[in-house]
Hints:
By secondary structure, the chain is an all-alpha fold. The protein contains six helices and no strands. It has helices at 6-41, 55-86, 92-119, 127-159, 164-179, 190-208.
Amino acid sequence: MRQHTPGASRESGLSTPRAAGFAGVAFAVMLGAAIVLVRTALPSGGGGEDLVLDEGEQSALSAAVHLVPFAGIAFLWFMGALRAHTGEAEDRFLATVFLGSGLVFVAALFGATAAAGTVLAEGRPESFGRHFAYTLLTTYAMRMAAVFVFATSAIGRRLGVLPRPLNAFGYLVGLALLVVGASAPWWELVFPAWALVISLYVLVVARRGPRRAPHSDGSA
Length: 220
């Protein structure tokens, strides 16, 4: 049997939610900033064959490209800390969907960023590269984000670690990301907004400290 050290167990119980909260906030802020920079520089998604980027637009896109890798790292930390917090009580099916969708989301996000980085090398990016980066981000990455939100909300509801309003909010966000997708500009911000809300809730709960279990007198 696994032997637990009381001090280590208490420290782990306190640090894991805080790690998830801080990582989630960092991810939400960085990804949200990157999306705003991209949408501001390319309001229509970069459509048009004769698109020419000025110096300000190139700077905004370059800043977004440099932000995304750090956002992805923070997301992986956020995902790992949340999964560690659920521990052995996690449902294997939901845990697989949670982990798989999160990893595919990061892969699609990095792929879109790499595509954007290659077309930024020129002041007149090619139409194929722009559309490829946008399609990978708004269609595939955001669909995987929707699945991740669904899985997180389902785990939160089943284990009782998230309140009902947050679970309902998560289902609405997942549905919006799944259905709306690339058809409405700026909808990508819904995902970092959801991550920010969840992270702030986790930080508030962690600040209150773990609930004390009822003491047992040893009698059966």
